[in-house]
Amino acid sequence: xxxxxxxxxxxxxxxxxxxxxxxxxxxxxxxxAELVAPDTYDLRMRLRGQAGTDAVLxxxxxxxxxxxxxxxxxxxxxxxxxxxxxxxxxRIGPATRGYDDPSYLHLVAAFPAIGLRPYAPAHLRAQRTxxxxxxxxxxxxxxxxxxxxxxxxxxxETQEAYLVRVVKDGAIRREATVGQPAWTYSAAMQLAxxxxxxxxxxxxxLSDAFGAGAFTRITIDD
Length: 222
Hints:
By secondary structure, this protein is mainly β. The protein has three domains: 1-75, no CATH class; 83-113, no CATH class; 122-220, Immunoglobulins (Immunoglobulin-like), CATH 2.60.40. Helices cover 5% and strands 42% of the residues. The N and C termini lie far apart (48 Å).
C-alpha cells in the first residue's frame, strides 16, 4: 500500500531486490503503490540504495530479480569474526517439520559480513591547481547517522582512514592510505605513474573489521 512522505522517510515500505546471492541486494523504499494488473504493482516515488546498498546499485534490475517486502529495518546478525567468509551448511524449511523433511532445502553459503562494510564516501570532487589535482569527499556512517544535531556524523570505526586509488584503463596505477577526507595527486605523482586524462580516482573508507568499503569514483577528463 502507499505511504505518506513522513511515513516513507521514517522507514515505511522498505523492500529488498537482488539476484538471490548472499551479498548482491539493494534496499529501496516506495511511497506510492498502484495495482495495475493481477499480482502486479507499479511502485513510484522510490528511494533507492538505502542503508549503504548504493554500492550494488545497477541502473535497472533485470526481469526475474527477487523482491522481498521487509518487515521493518534489517538487523545485523551477530556472527563472530572467525566465521566470516567461512562456508557453512544451512537447512531451510518449515519450522513445524524436522530438518530431514523432504521439503527442506540444503544451502552452502559463506557470508562476508556486508553489514560491517563502510558506506561509500559522498560528494567526491576534484580540482586542478596548476598540475596538481586536489581531491576531497564527505564521510558517511553506518552507525548512528540519523541525528541532525551534530557537526559531523559519527565515525563508526576505530580510526578514520581511506583507501585512494588511481585507475587508468582498468589498471590500478597508484594506491594511497590517508587519514583525512582529502588527498592531492601531484604533478610529480602523475608523471611517475605515466597517467594522463582520462582516468578515475576511487575512494573507499577503511574498516578494521571489514577492510575497504564500497568505492566511489570520479573521472578526471581534462
